Each structure stands twice: as C-alpha cells, then as structure tokens.
Amino acid sequence: MSLAVGAVAKGDELPSLQVRVTRADLVRYAGASGDLNPIHWSDRVAGVAGLPGVIAHGMLSMALAGRVLTAWTGDPAAVRSYGTRFTRPVVVPDDDTGATVELSGTVADVLDEGDRRIAVVDLRAVFDGKTVLGRARAEVVLPQ
Questions:
Q1: What is this structure's pTM?
Q2: What is the CATH number of the domain that holds 62?
Q3: Which has the closest alpha carbon to 99: 79, 126, 70?
Q4: Per-residue pLDDT averaged across 115-122, rounded?
Q5: What pLDDT score was predicted for residue 1?
Q6: Conformation bin of residue 34: beta by default, left when phi > 0, alpha when psi is -120 to 50
Q7: Tens digits of residue pLDDT in 5-51
Q8: How many CA atoms lie within 13 A of 78 on its CB side?
Q9: Which domain holds residue 35?
Q10: Domain MaoC-like: where (predicted)?
C-alpha cells in the first residue's frame, strides 16, 4: 500500500488482519529465534508451568501485530519504534486449525518533526476475544 502524507490522520484505522498460528509455526519460530522453551511445544510442560496449554512465543505475537504496520506502509524500514507488554498468552491447540489472532491498529497521533511526519499507531492483537498485547504502540515514518 502506498501512503500519501496528507491522507494519514488521527483516528484512521489500519487494515486489519487475521492470522492463524499452528504448532508447526511455533516449531519454526523456535528454531529461527533460538527460544526452545518447552512451554511453546509441550502440553505436559505447559501444564506443569500452570498454563492452559502450549502458548505462542510472546515475541511471535508481537511480530504478527507488526505485520499490520508493514502491510500498511509497504516498507518495514518505515517502522521507527515499536514496543508492547505481553498481557495474555495465545494458546495454540495441537490440531490442524491452530489459534486465530485478530490484528488491527489505529493512528493515535500524527507528529511533525521538521522535515518528516510520524504516525503514532496503537496496535491490537486479540485472541479468543481477549487482548494479548498491552500498550502496543509504534511510530511510523510517513513518506515525504
């Protein structure tokens, strides 16, 4: 998507995404990230840890929400900053369906910084009707 600088305003909704996360995705993410914690692949260990089942990596959930930004801008380098808190886990069942995470964002503010404009975007990641990321906020450099 190509963004026009004047077209971005406070309150704008970014196009939403729905992403399915499966156990196979967790295995691939574990290998790529080096996070091999068994709560991300073993129901037994997740249960012993007091979790309702195997959970997605928090950083994977964060990265999925970041896809809203990169799909919107068309340029991953436009994301200047991004931070969040992990508030609830995404429980991924051991089936072929996995877990569906609903991702969206809203422009909270547009800042003028000299020769560039910055969109401040609040992101949302929802699983099973509940928010899984708290204070998920990013800054995106808008095209000139």
A1: 0.90
A2: 3.10.129.10
A3: 126
A4: 96
A5: 47
A6: left
A7: 458 999 999 999 999 999 999 999 999 999 999 999 999 999 999 99
A8: 25
A9: 5-141
A10: 17-105
